[in-house]
Amino acid sequence: MIPDWQLPTGVDRGLWDYLSSERVAREYDEALQTTPLIHIDVEYAKRWLIPAGKLIDLGCGTGRLIEEFIPLGYDCTGVDLSEKMLTVAREKFLSHDPPPTWIQANLVDLSLIPDTSFQHAACLFSTLGMLRGEDNRQKFLHHVRRILVKGGRFVVHAHNRHFQFGFGLGQRGNERGDRTMPQMRGGAPLTLHHFSYRGLVNLLNQSGFRVLDTLLIGANATGKLSWPRFFPRWRAHGFLLACETI
Known about the structure:
By secondary structure, the chain is an alpha/beta fold. It has one domain (about 30-245): Rossmann fold. It has helices at about 15-20, 20-30, 35-50, 65-70, 85-90, 125-130, 135-145, 195-205, 230-235, and strands at about 55-60, 75-80, 100-105, 120-125, 150-160, 180, 190-195, 210-215, 240-245. The strands form two sheets. A seven-stranded mixed beta sheet has the order 3-2-1-4-5-9-8, with helices on both faces. The protein has a two-stranded antiparallel sheet with strand order 6-7. The longest helix is centred in the middle third of the chain and has 14 residues, at about 135-145. The termini are far apart.
C-alpha cells in the first residue's frame, strides 16, 4: 500500500482506494445504470460541445462519454488517474479503428498535454469535487483553459453545497463544502467537495471561462428539478455548466 505522504497531489486516501480498486472499475458501468445523471450529462454535453472536433474527457473513468461521442465523429481522448478504469475503457474499444487516446495522469498536473490541443473538454460526475484542496482545483481548471483553443467549450458537473438548504457541509479539518462519506465497495471514506453556485461560477471565471448556460439537477428519479421557480439554486442537487474560454 502506498503511504499517505506518497499520494498524488490532490488525492487523499479515500480517493486513492477508489481509483485503485479493480472491483470498482469492473462494476462501475453497472453501478451507474440507475443514476439519471449519466443520461442527463451526456445529452447536455452533446448540446454544447459542438461542432465535432477534438474532445478530451477529464476523469473519463471507463469511457462512458467517449462511447457516445466517437460515433458522432469526434476525435476523443480520455484522461484518468485510475489504471483500473483505463483498462476497462481500453477493452471497450479493442475493435475500434482508430481507438481513442487514453492518458493516465493526475488532473492536477496535465503539463504533458500541449497548449490549445482541443476544441472541447468535459469533467463530469463531480470529478472536480474529488480533487482535494481549492488550490488544486484551480490548477486543474487553469490546465483545462490552457489546453483548449480560444472559444473552446467546457462542460463541468458539480454537487450543490446548499442542497436542501444545507449550510453545515464540512467537518473539522476539512474545507467548507467538503462532505465525507463511506465507500460502498470498501476503502477509506471518500471526500467530495460541494460547491455553491456562485462559488463555482467565480472559480470558473477566475480560471478564464465564461459561463454560457446552467442546468440544475434534481434529486428525484428523473433528475429534473421539481418546482423550478422556488429557490432553484438552493434546492438543486447539482449543476451542469457549459462554458467557453475567454
